[in-house]
Amino acid sequence: MNALQQLKTMTTIVADTGDLQAIARLRPVDATTNPSLITKALTHPDKQAMLSDSLNHYSGNIDSVIDNLTIQVGCDILKLIEGRVSTEVDARLSYDTAATIAKAHDFIEAYNKAGVDTQSILIKIAATWQGIEAAKQLEKEGIHCNLTLIFGQHQAVACADAGVTLISPFVGRILDWQKREQNRQNISVEEDLGVQSVKRTYQYYKQHGYDTQVMGASFRSTEQILALAGCDLLTISPDLLDALSNLDTPVVQQLSADMQYEPMNKVSLTAQTFSDAYEQDSITQDLLPKGIDGFIRAREELAEALNMLTRKA
Length: 313
Hints:
Elements: H1 3-8, E1 12-15, H2 20-26, E2 31-32, H3 35-42, H4 48-57, H5 62-78, E3 85-88, H6 97-113, E4 121-126, H7 129-140, E5 145-150, H8 153-161, E6 166-169, H9 171-182, H10 193-207, E7 213-216, H11 222-226, E8 233-236, H12 238-245, H13 271-279, H14 282-312
Parallel strand pairs: 1-8, 2-3, 3-4, 4-5, 5-6, 6-7, 7-8
């Protein structure tokens, strides 16, 4: 078996792409919606009628149009996969618990109206304290959540305590930060802080019996991916999936719930101790706001593209 085939025996593989054609080709278990995917749909001939109908129905209310298109694209993705689709809450709400909960309710209601089994929906929320608190309430209601932009152990601990379904730690972005901070072009996988972060979180979850799943994300190389073989899920770009399928090398399982790890004390965080941990974590301080800003910019670019369509009409 090639490396990808071996990896699939240890880990659930998810395609990290917003391209519907790639999803159809790769047939991942899970997938996600995001503003970039909807932006791509703007230029697809098959989607022009859908865009026009949405713009007309909401009389140019761009936020409502984006939400509507998000649900429609989510429904399209679910026709191509067997698992779950993550639907992203507007990143501008990342520090507003009540607004995040309200938006999640809107999404679930819209999916219900579309005839979708909402057990196949993950509400994707940035892992701020406010976002985690929103997810805690949503999970109590049976609405499953994917907490994204995970860079620090304090975020992962808070997510597990909140009972979230899934977290997405960003391996590659942590490595990028490490290279900048250490002024190094090449860092071995053994020294890779992104890989180490996911391993530490996985081990902590399994030691203390948490059900929250860990999905490593944002990879830069096949070496990073194979260093996390056995993680609950790994979301991988099409290019790296193809590289793994062309790689003829033995894959050794690195993570397993049955493995013995160095004991870690169980901790519980309040809003204050979470904030204190954030202030002491230079990686999260740098990358979390940048990640949220990036999500906001992607939505603004989509809004501008939709505004242009409205003006043309």
